[in-house]
Amino acid sequence: MNGAWTSRKLAIVGAGVMGAGIATLAVGHGVPVLLLDIHEERLRRARDAVRRELGFARLMGKLPKGATGHLTLSTSYDDLRDADAVIEAVTETTDAKAKALAEICAAVAPGTLITSNTSAIPVDELAGRTTRPQDVVGTHFMNPPYLIRAVEVVRGPRTGDAAMAALRSLLAALDREEVLVGDGPGFVSNRILMRVINDAARLVEEGRASAEAVDQVFTGCFGHPTGPLATADLIGLDNVVDTLRVLHDRTQDDGYLACDLLVEKVRSGDHGRKTGKGFHIYGGTSA
């Protein structure tokens, strides 16, 4: 545990699945967390999720047993004023993230580390919508962040050395491993993964194979821990479609145009694990 960070405060803006997961990771390492969202009900669900996931992660030996960082909930950006670092984890749309980042910049002191947990939007595009692009870094935590040690870190062209140093201090406190990559749509992870998921979904749509068979090719033949469609269910099919939209808009590559089956599943409310059904039915059979 990094002693310096146990007396500092990490703020997380956005109390969805990823925001709650990052909060679990931080409090599990003794770091005080302010979790902010404009929806009180989402904050209540996140608080319950943090409590549940913290117990699970410690049972699995993925988080240290010992002191737990204090979790504070808030609906006001004014409460960010004494934060030592802020992680933005709102919906993966440019407008939502730009609005949150602008609110963060208005609330925190210059020089405060601001990271955007974006999975596809270029960091410099987001930083350019702020008053302090030098303080902005991209951090792509994988889901669930308390189980996966590596973090895809994206340094934008205007990210400053001080912001990178502050981020590395925070990642050390969270016992995470930095994988530094260059800026651009989808970075490395989703530039590759989203095309694979989209193509896998197209194969199911075309009747070439079931979702189960597609995933078994990856797990049984390639030795991957999970197949692309089970991975999509874990990410959330709504998040997959949003990310594909970002990639298609910025690359004009039709390989990132979300296939009809993905769009229909999202429209029907079958978003994956978080709704109990996506390409697979959790506790049941393939969909």
Automatic annotation (TrEMBL):
Residues 9-183 form the 3-hydroxyacyl-CoA dehydrogenase NAD binding domain. One of its GO terms (molecular function) is NAD+ binding. InterPro entries: 3-OHacyl-CoA_DH (IPR022694), 3-OHacyl-CoA_DH_NAD-bd (IPR006176), 3HC_DH_C (IPR006108), 6-PGluconate_DH-like_C_sf (IPR008927), 6PGD_dom2 (IPR013328), NAD(P)-bd_dom_sf (IPR036291). Gene3D superfamilies: N-(1-d-carboxylethyl)-l-norvaline Dehydrogenase, domain 2, NAD(P)-binding Rossmann-like Domain. It holds the Pfam family 3HCDH_N. Residues 186-281 form the 3-hydroxyacyl-CoA dehydrogenase C-terminal domain. The chain crosses the membrane at residues 12-36. Pathway: Lipid metabolism; butanoate metabolism. NAD(+) binds at G14, A15, G16, V17, M18, G19, D37, E92, K97, S119, N143, K274. The keyword Transmembrane applies. The record marks H140 as: Important for catalytic activity. One of its GO terms (biological process) is fatty acid metabolic process. Keywords: Membrane, NAD, Oxidoreductase, Transmembrane, Transmembrane helix. Belongs to the 3-hydroxyacyl-CoA dehydrogenase family. This is 3-hydroxyacyl-CoA dehydrogenase. It comes from Streptomyces cyaneogriseus subsp. noncyanogenus. The lineage of its organism: Bacteria, Bacillati, Actinomycetota, Actinomycetes, Kitasatosporales.
